[in-house]
Amino acid sequence: MQIEKTGIIIEVERGQTTQNNAALKDLWKVHICEEADYLFLLVPNILRQNESGKVNGRPYKETVNRLSTFFEKQNYTNARGVVIFGY
């Protein structure tokens, strides 16, 4: 979605958020896209992928921890920001 001179990539993830590094791929899309500077990422708070209802992961927490490292002083990405929504 282009907004004046910047843009946003919006992604909704489910089970592959951390298991298959989908969140990293989404950040990479923003990094290489000339029209996008921001990523809005929707990820589940808790992941249950089995019949017993056992919690298999906490993608929201894992995604925040993983992507925050790209915005530390010594690390570089040309993405201006990532907004992570938990659902």
Report on the architecture of this protein:
The protein has about 90 residues and is α/β, with parallel strands linked by helices. The protein has one domain (about 1-85). It has three helices and four strands, in the order ββααβαβ. It has helices at about 15-20, 20-30, 60-70; strands at about 1-5, 5-10, 40-45, 80-85. It has a four-stranded mixed beta sheet with strand order 1-2-3-4, with helices on one face. The radius of gyration is 14 Å and the shape is elongated.
Key descriptive features of the protein:
single chain; 87 residues; alpha/beta; four-stranded mixed β-sheet; 3 helices; 24% strand; elongated
Q: What's the layout of helices and strands?
A:
Elements: E1 2-3, E2 6-12, H1 16-19, H2 22-32, E3 38-43, H3 59-68, E4 81-86
Parallel strand pairs: 2-3, 3-4
Antiparallel strand pairs: 1-2
